[in-house]
Amino acid sequence: MRTQLNRIELQDDGTHYYRADFQVHTPRDANWDGPRPRTEDERVAWAKSFLAAARENQLNAVAISDHHDFAMYPYVRQAALDEVDNEGTPILDKERLVVFPALELTLQVPCQAILILDADFPLDRLDDVLKALHHEPFNAAARSLPTTTVLPKSDSIPNVCAQLDLKPWLKGRYILLPNVTPSGHKSLIRDSFQDKYKDALTVCVAGYLDGSVAILEKKPGKATILEGRDGNWGDRPIALFQTSDSRKSDFAELGSAATWVKWSRPTAEALRQASLARESRISHAEPAVPNVWISRVVVSHSKFMGRLDSRLNPQYTAIIGGRGTGKSSVLDYMRWALGDQVANTGEEDELVDPRARQRRLINATLVPYDAVVEVYLVINGVPHVVRRHAKSGEFELQVGDEDFATVHETIVQRLLPVQAYSQKQLSSVAIRVDELTRFLETPILRQLEDIDRRHVETQGRLRENYGTLQRHRSVTREMEQSRARIKSLTGQAQALRDGLTGLSEADRMLLDHKAGHDQAATAVAAWRQQLAALEVETEALRSAYRRAANLVSVHEDAPEELKADLGIAVTAIHKALQQAEIALGTIGDSLSVAVAPSGSIDASLGAVDRRLTSFNERYGAVKERSTAHETKLRQLAELEYQINEATDLLGKQELECGRLGDPAGEHDRFREKLRELNSERSQALQTQCVALSAASDQLIRASLEVGHNFAEVQSKFRGLVTGSGLRGNKIENLFDMLKTDKDPATTWEAILAELELVMLLEPDGELTSELAPTLSRLGFTVTDLQRIKPKITPEAWLDLSLTPLVDQPVFEYQSKPGTYIPFSSASAGQQATALLTTLLTQDGMPLLIDQPEEDLDSETVQHIVAKIWEAKGRRQLILASHNANLVVNGDADLVLVCGYTTAGDQSAGTIKSSGAIDQPEIRDAITTVMEGGEKAFRLRKEKYGF
């Protein structure tokens, strides 16, 4: 609704929706329900109260339509002109309540009709309108009107219009709406009125209803007549205006049956044009408008167009003009400022490469002037401005009332993506896989970006964990080596002990106990290491809780109504975190006390230490007494030293292994998460394939070959095995077979697992075909594996494993019902029509197309026109065109007319005018500069029999 739209929308000169009630009566009405003001002051006060009621009922326009009387209209008109906001500031012109002067007529047909004049119709001519209808004005001072009489010379609606058209100052400044309510003595579609109705259709493009269109649901036959589908009543549909017939002093009915109507200027011609394009300009329920749109483009200075500052319509802006007047430049400046990547058409000639052309345009027309391009956008009601500097290419972004901030190009591309196509680009999309993919992905870009963000996050965590996994594997191998060494050393030491002779039984027993005491000493040392580590980790966890608490607070910009509840939540969180920290402190303190000198753990371990020390002293004494075995004892001492060192190392390794956790399990979980994300992405694209096929009216059949595009993976694999001596055809054959595999993604996962096993195989390990069954099945021999093994590093394998398989979209064209051919086999015009049909059916970001008619077959333009009507409620359209049908019958809401600054001088251009087709100067420009302009207007009228 107008009252809910952002002011920035009102700044362009195009058409916008206004919620209007075109049958509103005043206290002068004979059937008025309530007091009747009589004095001047009372009438002024009533008009102000009416204005307040109109605002409360969210009306943007009314027609004051008393029976054969204009007396109260000036009061309402003046009240609207005098309106101020809550701060006493006058309302902006485009935000004022629009007040049309109107008359409810009682005709000899017999029926009633509403005559609506331009909103700025001269007040001193209103009585002359009545006289043109052969009716003398009533006494303006009277409190009420007399009983309604039938207008003379009004036996047919064409006769009434003919009388009005005799007045040059009136012709073209009115519109007549007959009453077409399904039942009642006032209606023109009563039984047996077929000829009168068909007669009226020669001059009328619309009618009004007493109430809403819902009343037609009970009268389907009448609806058929109004839709032009009953030949007995004529074959011309008419537009319908819902009206409230408000005539109560409490304004309870005001706006109860309103109609949303589009216009740029509140004139009768605007209402006529809206009626001629009722599908696009008239709505009986609140209409949909795009929630993301470009509102303005500003170029500080350019070589050809100088300074450019143009407003754009939120729905459909058409840029017209002679060839070479700057239409394409305006689109290119917007695309460049928003970082839109112009796609290559596949042409090798740089002269027709749109990317090269855009670079030349910027370098030639903006860079020499150090120009700045600003694009203003509205995203869900929030204004954004993107500013880009021609020399540096630097981007700045302003959101809402914030200051401009320098941002990276990708920020702009992701936040404010547009869908744009250069000249002849639509008809070249089919030959480029990347463009087909972009075409498929763009409508669900946000969803795909979210999946990709989670994919990148998971990849990052997997990469981090893979380093841990490599270390875990290394430590595990080192532990195995340590255990084997300790086992060997322990056996050697025990053999030396057993070889000592001449010892007493007691000494022999003491030597036999040496290994057990050493194991106990090792265990005690490991326990102490664990306890020390727990103390450090407990303190680190306490610090994490403290940091978390510091991050939880109520932001100063939080809404006032939420601050109290947010404060309670923050208090609860702080309390919970504090209690957890206290509990951790208690745990840490308890542990510290236990391990401190004289603590329970220290005391118990101290007792063990003393026993071990005593044993070692006795053991040493035994060795000293065994002088006959000096050499063996030295060897034994060396072995025992090595055992102690190896045991200490094993303890550290086991501690490190414990700290590393379960990285293998984490690796498997991350791999599974990546598979799930790949599946989620594929499912989103498959769903979009179905939606795209439906959006194209089944002209396109889109499907998805999941995981069939191995281009990037193949390139990475080739780089990985470079220098191994592996033949190139081996690689080609491998990926050719993968592409035809029934489940290529699963097979590739198996290949990756086998490559990792090959990489992890110890140098002395045996490499067999059983180690890599999938690779063997796909043609890799043991010799091939031996060649590539030295080339597979953990980093290279990880990089290869994280390279995604790309889903391959497949497009087909429906050449006839039920028959599909490869999309590339369709003609350029067929391809472009199908793709444009799809684009105009999708929701999304602004759609910019430069001269779409160059891609279309002439007979398909009208098909596209109908799609444009529907599309501009879902997404903003900005088209540069030479085809008048796309502009006129496509019902452009705003037309920007490009031309040369000076006639005959083609060195400088400008936007000479802007407006809508209900404005004479814009209609003149269309018929002058556009191909088939006059014919397009004639087609628009012939559609309704004019």
TrEMBL record:
InterPro entries, alphabetized: P-loop_NTPase, Pol/histidinol_Pase-like, RecF/RecN/SMC_N, TrlF_ATPase
NCBIfam families (alphabetical): TrlF_fam_ATP
Domain RecF/RecN/SMC N-terminal per the UniProt entry, residue ranges: 294-891
Stretches of the chain forming a coiled coil according to its record: 517-544, 629-687
UniProt organism field: Dietzia cercidiphylli
Name of the protein described by the UniProt record: AAA family ATPase
Keyword DNA repair among record annotations: yes
Keyword DNA repair in annotation: yes
Keyword terms: Coiled coil, DNA damage, DNA repair, SOS response
Pfam families: SMC_N
PANTHER family named among the record's database cross-references: DNA REPLICATION AND REPAIR PROTEIN RECF
